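Reopening this ticket.

The earlier resolution said the output was attached, but the attachment link was broken on my side. Pasting everything inline this time so it's all in one place.
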Amino acid sequence: MAALHQIYTTPEVRDWAASGCRSAGIGCLECKQPVIEAMLREQEGGAAAAQPYLDDPSLLRSIVADGCDRARHAAQETMRDVREAMGLAYT
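Inline output:
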């Protein structure tokens, strides 16, 4: 838990958690609560960004389809170049 406190909490909260843990003045859930709250705050932006795709899954499907088309086109060009370099270009 100390590693997560290093990432998500302030030095004051880390000191409070370390002292409370060593003295058994706080329980594990109390120690973890500031980390949980900070992680949830960090994830709020991602959840908001994902909402349009949750509301309309066809948006995501169209992005994937466009990506597949671009990848297919790039692969076809690469294979054409490879065949030409190997002398396998058939016209």
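Reporter confirms the inline version is readable. The helical segments are 2-8, 11-23, 28-55, 57-85. Residues 59 and 70 are 17 Å apart (CA to CA).
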